[in-house]
Design brief:
The chain is mainly beta. Helices cover about 5% and strands about 35% of the residues. It contains four helices and 39 strands.
Length: about 575
């Protein structure tokens, strides 16, 4: 196992060194420079992916392999009942914990005691929200310049004063003229801008925008359209199908300051499925490659200009998109890499050289076990080998299911072990592809092109999941733990030698980061499909995790597994905080 992965140099020319190590990040000090060094203060967790490296790693080690057996639940926060549980990542800044629940409600709590500080509840256009499949859930927020930033499912971005919970600005960013799209993922603060991607890959309409707003005023700085945004894109959609083409960038990307580049994953085209078969370049509802869906875009954070891209699934006909927001930035032997999982179960390793068009591949490795939508992927070119074409009517045992061998949840990279920890999901679907009429341009109607039901993979009695520790560049497996129920939440690894796994059945596990051995477990009483973080207040380390069940993916657990999921509520959740 090669452990020569090292921390990337994050200092930019012309920016003075700034260290937060050992000191709290005051709300007013959380500027662009402080965000560059977010990983240097393990006491706080100031952005969705912890830092721009996207490691989801804590350098705290007070809780470790020797004493994790003594980890205890210290306090709980129970928010208002909400639709589809709690799916967000908490943030901790200057001793205050912030997290979101349905309808983009923000809660501010004392991070040591759980004492209530304030609550912000925006007024949501419920008619517009309920007209989408997303409804009012929210997966996180961003922080910077004394403010918190959150998107809403009715297409707004709101800035809230971090100390008082009062609105600073409220910007209607998306309208319904090009399709009913909104925001469910967390924004990303880069320099003086707030960047956020829209959902809507399942809806007719364009243009799946990724948008940057001025962090101080909310003014729109730029917009990049993942569908129909330039001539290259429009030319790749036959019959002007880009006008109903879906797209988007619904999960949080990242920023590389050494190349001044924002990396963002892009969503599937609409309709999700089509009947074109091997003639997909010329026939079907959306002939052509369908750029820039189901892949990665590299953008200039100042202007939104496209620097480069890579389409991981050209003409994606299975809904295996690239909008998983995870871009793990690593250095090995003097070369910089970007590790990006794709929903189809393959992990793409790019060279961090955004000047090349398309992005240069270093490797592609397979996290899943049962995929059959392709026979393989060329690790040097990314070419899909042996595509499985769908035809009108019933298509049996397509693997993975629409839920993905990899979902939106994030893994974790640990620089001490050199391992990348990631959840894999093994399930398939029987899918009936239908010839559906093309909706009116920009109509915003649901545009799937199929119905389906989830099934176990062929040769297996049941669907299942796994958590593994791997070399992030080669995919070599150091260890793997099979889970009866596929985990849907994100992972956390720590300097204390631990990997925390929030389970679908409510069990919360701590594994040995070197071996995968289970060292501790706690029944949190409800399934997890949100975030887990670690932070410290006054020298004491805490582990925080959210519970709450009810996403579209989790809706398959009842039919697949029965109890406890048939009885698991989908209208509540909690924040649980643990410590020694």
């Amino acid at each position: 196992m090669d452990h020569l992965l090292t921390t990337r140099a994050w200092l930019l020319s012309g920016i003075a060194a700034f260290s937060l190590l050992g000191a709290a990040a005051r709300a007013g000090e959380l500027d662009a420079n402080a965000l560059l060094h977010a990983d240097e203060n393990p006491n706080n967790w100031v952005m969705y992916h912890q830092s721009y490296k996207s490691w989801h790693y804590s350098a705290l080690d007070q809780i470790n392999t020797n004493n994790v057996k003594d980890l205890k639940l210290l306090w709980i926060h129970t928010p208002d009942p909400g639709h589809r549980g709690v799916q967000s990542f908490p943030l901790v800044i200057d001793g205050t914990l912030y997290y979101t629940t349905s309808d983009s409600i923000i809660w501010a709590l004392d991070a040591a005691t759980g004492a209530f500080k304030w609550k912000f509840k925006p007024k949501i256009d419920t008619d517009r929200a309920n007209a989408t499949i997303y409804n009012p859930y929210n997966r996180g927020l961003a922080a910077g310049y004394g403010k918190l930033y959150v998107g809403t499912v009715d297409g707004r971005v709101i800035a809230i004063d971090m100390l008082t919970g009062k609105t600073v600005w409220d910007k209607q960013v998306l309208t319904v003229e090009k399709g009913n799209k909104g925001f469910t993922g967390a924004p990303l603060v880069v320099k003086d801008k707030v960047i956020i991607g829209a959902n809507g890959g399942e809806l007719s309409g364009c243009c799946g925008p990724i948008i940057a707003l001025d962090a101080a005023t909310g003014g729109i700085a730029w917009e990049f359209d993942t569908v129909g945004g330039d001539e290259r894109s429009r030319a790749s959609w036959g019959n002007d199908s880009w006008k109903v083409g879906g797209g988007g960038g619904w999960m949080t990307g990242t920023y590389d300051p050494t190349t001044d580049t924002v990396y963002w994953g892009t969503a599937n085209p609409a309709p999700d499925y089509d009947w074109s078969g091997p003639n997909w370049m010329k026939e079907g509802p959306r002939p052509g490659l369908n750029l820039y869906t189901s892949g990665v875009v590299a953008l200039d954070p100042n202007t939104g200009r496209l620097k480069s891209y890579f389409q991981e699934n050209p003409h994606d006909m299975w809904d295996f998109d690239g909008a998983v927001g995870e871009f793990v930035l690593l250095e090995r032997e003097g070369k910089h890499y970007i590790v990006h999982p794709n929903k189809g179960g393959y992990v793409y390793v790019y060279l961090d050289e955004p000047g090349f068009m398309p992005l240069r591949l270093r490797n592609v490795w397979h996290l899943g076990k049962t995929a059959n939508f392709v026979q393989g992927i060329n690790p040097e070119t990314g070419e899909l080998i042996g595509r499985r074409f769908l035809h009108e009517g019933m298509n049996k045992a397509l693997c993975p299911a629409i839920d993905g061998a990899i979902s939106w949840n994030s893994g974790s990279y640990n620089p001490v072990t050199g391992l990348y920890y990631k959840v894999g999901q093994e399930w398939c679907q029987d899918i009936e592809v239908q010839k559906v009429d093309r909706p009116k341009d920009y109509s915003g109607q649901n545009y799937f092109g199929a119905t389906w039901n989830s099934i176990p993979p062929p040769g297996y009695e049941s669907a299942f999941g796994h958590v593994s520790g791997r070399d992030p560049i080669t995919g070599h497996v150091a260890w793997e733990v099979v889970y009866r129920y596929p985990p849907l939440a994100s992972l956390l690894s720590t300097k204390g030698g631990l990997v925390f796994v929030p389970g679908a059945d409510g069990m919360f596990d701590a594994l040995d980061a070197k071996t995968g051995e289970k060292l501790w477990s706690h029944n949190d009483g409800l399934g997890h499909h949100g975030g887990v973080i670690s932070y410290a207040v006054n020298g004491k380390q805490y582990i925080a995790v959210v519970t709450g069940w009810g996403s579209h993916v989790s809706g398959n657990y009842g039919p697949l597994f029965g109890e406890p999921f048939l009885s698991m509520p989908t209208d509540n959740g909690q924040l649980l905080v643990f410590g020694l």
